[in-house]
Amino acid sequence: MALKITVIGTGYLGATHAAAMAELGFEVLGLDVVPEKIEMLQRGEVPMYEPGLEELLAKHVAGIEGSSGRLRFTMDWAEVAEFGDVHFVCVNTPQKHGEYACDMSYVDAAFASLAPHLTGPALVVGKSTVPVGSAERLGRTLVGLAPAGEDVELAWNPEFLREGLAVQDTLHPDRIVAGVRSERAEKLLREVYATPLAEGTPFVVTDFPTAELVKTAANSFLATKISFINAMAEVCEAAGGDVVKLAEAIGYDDRIGKKFLRAGIGFGGGCLPKDIRAFMARAGELGADQALTFLREIDSINMRRRGQMVEMTREALGGGSFLGKRIAVLGATFKPDSDDVRDSPALNVAGQIHLQGGQVTVYDPKGMDNARRLFPTLAYAETAAEAVRGAHAVLHLTEWSEFRELDPAALGEAVTDRVVLDGRNALDPAVWRAAGWTYRAMGRPAA
Length: 447
Ligand code: UDX
Fold this sequence. Notes:
Layout: E1 4-8, H1 12-23, E2 27-31, H2 35-42, H3 53-60, E3 71-74, H4 77-83, E4 86-89, H5 105-114, E5 122-126, H6 134-145, E6 152-156, H7 166-171, E7 176-179, H8 183-192, H9 194-198, E8 203-206, H10 208-239, H11 243-251, H12 272-285, H13 293-316, E9 326-330, H14 345-355, E10 359-363, H15 368-374, E11 379-380, H16 384-388, E12 393-396, H17 401-404, H18 408-414, E13 419-422, H19 429-434, E14 438-441
The chain binds uridine-5'-diphosphate-xylopyranose.
Uridine-5'-diphosphate-xylopyranose (UDX) binds at residues 160-163, 219, 222, 226, 260-262, 264, 266-269, 271-272, 334-335.
Active site: 271
Enzyme class: oxidoreductase
Pathway: Nucleotide-sugar biosynthesis; UDP-alpha-D-glucuronate biosynthesis; UDP-alpha-D-glucuronate from UDP-alpha-D-glucose: step 1/1
């Protein structure tokens, strides 16, 4: 008989995982503790913007005309426990307020709510990004609280999806990591992932601590690559070099590679910044803090970029105060193809200039509602053309394709001064300069 799957937590990770499991042919029951989310998902609506996810839900959510009916949602823990053979825990682990450590309260609550209902054999699979050592502790909690005792087992199976590409990354992962303690757990996970495994996806079997560490190590490496190129951008700015050419040239070396070397205002979002901080905090608890002191530098290079963007803007406006200056900000989300504004470098830069007296108007293709909630005091425009009207400077801070397709000549008619600052090195300087704009970018010569 085919396995039945449950997915606990329906954020970017959980909602995508649930839909992907239904796509792979399993009967799936998703759970969340937020009633509004469940109501939306039951109608096939996605509580956030994630390309392709709505289409996948429409294909599988029960009750939608023409759907497979394999995917349902509930708020009932007993129903979830009764339904599933394999339970994926996909709740989030944000940064604790005012601390580096991550907040495990949602994970702990999920285990505490599920375990007492587990009366028969089950595999609980942790997917959330957690401090190393959590799986060991949660495994004990599970066996202690579940009426089925030792028949309930834990596995750790980190997820590497990128927002904006979540569906593609979940259906076609580049590797599957399985932290397991028994052959039974490994067999069940192989069964769940049989389709990607048949397509040749590597399956790495490890112990619990290694599985947890793979995720934080991968994110630390990615953060390090970005801060490395941003450090090179700082040196290029001081020496008159061009970081875009530099990244291209070093990227031809296969050992370095071209990806994740785009200099600009740095990384944000709900993962990289908080994951490297939580990793440092956990290493400190383990007495291994010295091993990760470099991550402190990675974090500060990254945070420094935001202030440097503000200063570059000030300089481009002739120096001095922002008072009386109109600044158009294109982009609010932490990356394109997402509506996520968590720890967004773009909004941070917009907020800093606003606090210093600049008249900032923000436009983003998908992130406006979330941005308005987070920064209600900023002004917002409904289109890029409206945002730039009367601007003394245009800041390009999130590289949506919509912005690359803008016509600088037409836009130039609406602004006060043709000054554009590219915080993502994603616009074509030649095209903007040809249309009479002063183009400045991070880590590149002024002209
Ligand atoms: C990241 C990891 O990539 C993913 O594997 C993990 O599961 C979750 O964290 P995500 O946060 O969705 O995914 O975004 P990612 O594409 O990694 O970008 C993170 C940030 O780095 C963005 O703000 C992006 O703009 C920035 N970035 C990325 C750069 O500044 N330069 C680059 O070259 C690449």
